[in-house]
Amino acid sequence: MADTARVTNKGARRWAGGHPWIYRSDVTERPGSPAGAVMVEDNRNRKLGWALWSPASEISLRMIERDPEVAIDGAWWRTQIERAAARRSGMHANVNAYRLIHGEGDGCPSLICDRYDRWLVVQMMSAGLEAFRNEIVAALLDVTKAEGILARNDVPLRSKEGLERNTELLHGDVPREIVVEEYGVKFIVAPWSGQKTGAFLDQRENRRRVGELARGRALDCFSYHGSFALHLAAKADEVLAVDSSGQALVRAAENAKLNGFENIRYVEADAFDHLRELERTGERFDTIVLDPPAFAKSKTHLAGALRGYKDVNLLGMKLLARGGRLYTASCSFHLTKPLFLEMLQEAAAESGRTIAFREFLGQPLDHPEILSIPETGYLKGALLEAMD
Ligand code: SAH
Questions:
Q1: Which CATH superfamily includes the segment(s) 202-386?
Q2: 113: CA distance to ligand 1 center in Å?
Q3: Which of 1, 43, 80, 121 is exposed most, by the fewest CB atoms within 10 A?
């Protein structure tokens, strides 16, 4: 007999409304079992389905299955992973780095799996999920035939679950560097040490879109490994890549070499300072990319973050040549779409320029954003154009 958790009406309503998280305060009877799958019931003993149970976490339950008759075993995980893989079957043939499992967005709460060519990098971010590590690894191998699986479980979130933080090889071998291809551009992924699982895959389609539109003098600000710069370099005359991390720019230069691009310059500097300097000296750009890190890591930091976003966008707008295009993004979950657009309107109003809103860009299809689970969506992008 599986252990049971009982939840409040509020908790039950959340699941009925399509959100899988049930917080500690909405669990009226806690299962006595260790982390794993538990049956969830409401206060009238009605079965709501199965959840992943995390005894130490504020998110106590993550609902995964409505049908109480189904067993949560290796076959169940395999079905989930097969479905996730099927959703990506239309991925472009020239892309071999993409997200295979986007956690709650693919019905696998707290599980991330990114595919880099023949290798997988996973993140298991809850105790309930961790209990199924062997089943998940077996199912991933079965579905993808990957040569190696690395766990980048070095994320702070694991501490909230009472889990160890480490980077661990789960199967086979995973190289320190993997060369992947993205719409004709090659870049090196560092699965063991790079940010997230080794690269920022969520901007892939936006990099391609901005690359198509690039021309003249281009600026890639917050460049990291130069992934936007590479797409810009194919069409623009010259590209300036700015990042505060010298190490990241060394990698960007290696990536440029790999593609044979010789028109990228690198500047190690604080973006705010450097943009101000460019503005002061009257520089102008035909194509600009602003892809800052998440300034708002939590809701309490939102006000400060908004100032940061507005400042950097204001500078970006001022630096646009006539007819110049700006792709600007935010990956802060707490900066919602409406706030993002409002921030851009305010920056435009202050910039003294006439700025057109051309396209809204967001997450690619391999990062499904579920309407009833706001946390699955975080990336917003806008393509703007200077009309004067
Ligand atoms: N555009 C990249 C991802 C950018 S990640 C891609 O698509 O792959 C954010 C980058 O901003 C990191 O490389 C980090 O080093 C850099 N960064 C953070 N704060 C910065 C600052 N104040 N000035 C310049 N770069 C900064």
A1: Vaccinia Virus protein VP39 (3.40.50.150)
A2: 23
A3: 1
Determine which residue's CA is closest to atom 18 belonging to ligand 1: 293
Structural domain boundaries in the chain: 4-65, 74-178, 202-386
| Residue 92 vs residue 179, higher pLDDT | 179
Q: Which stretches of the chain are assigned E, i.e. beta strand?
A: 4-7, 21-23, 27-29, 36-41, 47-53, 59-65, 97-102, 111-116, 119-124, 148-153, 166-172, 178-182, 185-189, 217-221, 238-243, 264-268, 285-290, 320-330, 355-361, 380-386
Domain 74-178 belongs to what topology?
Transcription Regulator spoIIAA (3.30.750)
4-9-10 Cα angle (round to 5) = 110
**Per-residue pLDDT tens for 20-31?**
999 999 999 999
Cβ of 222 less than 6 Å from ligand 1? yes
Q: Is residue 271 within 6 Å of ligand 1 at its C-beta? A: yes
312 Cβ inside 6 Å of ligand 1: no
Which pLDDT band holds residue 2 (cuts at 50, 70, 90)? low
Distances (CA, A) of 166 to 59, 105, 171, 215, 262: 21, 24, 15, 43, 38
Nearest protein Cα to ligand 1, atom 9: 293
Ligand 1: distance of its center to the CA of 315 in Å?
16
231-266 pLDDT tens trace: 999 999 999 999 999 999 999 999 999 999 999 999
Active site residue 331: yes
Structure tokens given for 337: 């779409």
Residue nearest atom 13 in ligand 1 by C-alpha distance: 224
- Nearest atom of ligand 1 to the alpha carbon of 199: 8
What's the CATH architecture for 4-65? Roll (2.30)
- The closest residue, in CA terms, to atom 16 on ligand 1 is 222
- Spacing, Cα 252 to ligand 1 middle (Å): 12
Model confidence, pTM: 0.95
Q: How confident is the model at residue 155 (pLDDT cuts 50, 70, 90)?
A: very high
The tens digit of pLDDT for each residue in 86-143 reads 999 988 777 999 999 999 999 999 999 999 999 999 999 999 999 999 999 999 999 9
In the reported structure, the alpha carbon of residue 71 is separated from the centroid of ligand 1 by a whole-number distance in angstroms of 44
Q: What is the mean pLDDT of residues 364-385?
A: 97
Whether the CB of 245 sits within 6 Å of ligand 1: yes
